[in-house]
Write a structure and sequence with these properties.
Elements lengths: L6 E7 L5 H8 L7 E5 H7 L10 H24 L3 E5 L5 H10 L4 E8 L2 H11 L6 H4 L11 E4 L5 H12 L7 H14 L1
Parallel strand pairs: 1-3, 1-4, 2-3, 4-5
């Protein structure tokens, strides 16, 4: 068993902002062994239904359970002393709230991955695997209003963004964004 809890770097941004490319580019730059755990890898583990079509309520329930499981999978890895890079959009407030509880006690660094709306739309069209307009519809991704590091992928490639993150990461002072967000929620919980 590990003597320490793992550290977590959460790459938050809209769909097609470049989170996955940055996460993969960070791994060789980090000095200790790190795991890249994108939410898309969890989604890819899910079976494809062939027997019936889910209605909207069933889809919402399935996606909520998937996200909650992802939060706990990251926490489980970190609880065993593993360092984790998450690739995950904080596109719904309940995701932030659940992560604040689930990752309490862990060293979490919140990285905002930003990109211009025009570039997001161009990337979605080029990818062809996402609905056009998905990224622009994710306005809540930055609504929590706090971060530790911000990178902009509009004109900067994933390797340079990864280097900016890793270079900034070691110099961050406490409390970090997740701790500040958690502290802001405490007065709300008392009422």
């Amino acid at each position: 068993m590990s003597d320490r809890a793992g550290r977590i770097i959460l790459l938050n941004g809209a769909s097609s902002a470049g989170k996955s490319s940055i996460g993969r580019a960070m791994l060789p730059l980090l000095s200790d062994p790190w795991f890249f755990m994108p939410v898309d890898a969890i989604n890819a583990m899910r079976s494809t239904l062939h027997t019936r079509v889910l209605d909207d309520t069933e889809i919402t329930g399935m996606l909520t359970r998937t996200r909650l499981g992802y939060h706990r999978a990251v926490a489980a890895m970190a609880s065993a002393g593993n360092d984790v890079v998450m690739d995950y959009p904080l596109s719904e407030q309940w995701r932030v709230d659940d992560l604040l509880k689930t990752l309490a006690g862990y060293d979490v660094t919140l990285v905002e991955v930003r990109c211009s709306p025009d570039e997001l739309e161009r990337r979605e069209r080029r990818r062809g695997d996402r609905p056009i307009g998905l990224a622009l519809s994710q306005r809540l991704v930055y609504a929590h209003g706090d971060f530790d590091i911000v990178v902009d992928t509009t004109d900067t490639g994933p390797d340079e963004c990864a280097k900016q993150i890793v270079d900034s990461w070691g110099a961050l002072a406490a409390p970090k964004a997740f701790d500040r967000l958690r502290l802001r929620q405490l007065p709300e919980r008392r009422h």
